[in-house]
Amino acid sequence: MIERLHIQNFKSIKDLWLDLKPVNVLIGSNGVGKSNFISFFELTKAIYSQDLGAYTGFRDMSRLLYNGRKHSPSIDGLLDFNNVNAFRFSVIPTMERKGMIALAGDYFNNHGTQDKNYAQNWNWKQWDNMVSECSIKTQDKWRAGYLKKYLESFTVYHFHDTSISSPMRGFCNINDNVRLRENGSNLAACLYHLSLTDAAAFRLIEGTVRAVAPYFKEFTLAPLSNDPSSIYLTWRESGTDDFRDSQHLSDGTIRFMALATLLLQTNAPEIIILDEPELGLHPAAIERLAAMVKRAERQGRQIIISTQSTNLVNCFDAEDIITVDRMDGETVFNRLDGNELKEWLDGYNYSISDLWEKNVIGGQL
Fold this sequence. Notes:
alpha+beta; Rossmann fold; six-stranded antiparallel β-sheet; six-stranded mixed β-sheet
């Protein structure tokens, strides 16, 4: 998992060092920079996938720099995985509104200590210098291989689009089933694949969906008879044998199906990043979502969540919560300390959301 990260000069984040835990729940008001933190992982994935030029060109590299290129010469990042290897990169703007790799490489902790002085006490190996795309994806050394399994899982999941034309409700290629896509567009293919290869996980997903949507009985997934390469979401309602498809699902139910598939599959991503997963969910479903997150944590996954849901926040310990504020134009982050809040939580019987709403813990600026 990510043990520690450094973000410098990215959007509203000027200079952040942050230790991460297995579960990290970011809460804050609109516009404070939660989404910018989440977007940092999209940038890192673009670097890994050799899509930096397309990613920065589409967004305009100058707009990604903290206060623009006159103030910030580069975006710098460092991600320390398990106190073993740390991936470091620096991206600078070009005249074509794109970004290029000024340097990229990794640090290896050959001392095995908790020392965080990467530059002096860890072994540095630079792969790239002034190139258009990073070479880590094609590196075959073991140090790069260690990082790849984490970096390739950097997908920000946001199942926001549940409209009639939503990708989740449409047809998908039955072979697009290796990993759930960020918008759930291959949900049917992934579920069908699980039904064939991991029956226990598939039944768990069905049962969990049934717990929040009692009218749901089971999935009835199968390739299309006239196009065996395609599939879409079909299911059966309790008490009837009538055919149902994705258009018969509420927004909240189809979102919950995608979340359950992502979090309950046996081979879930190493690092799961969720952007406002509570949208459209009933409070009871939010509690189930929290339970699925905790289960994924027990399975060895690390979860990063951006939310505005007080119901979701109340499901986690204080140490899992990071409040996000905007001060003097800069996004600041603060992880809660359960010992410091013990009197509020135990003595006065307040919840985390009570303290957030009263602005005791921040996250309201």
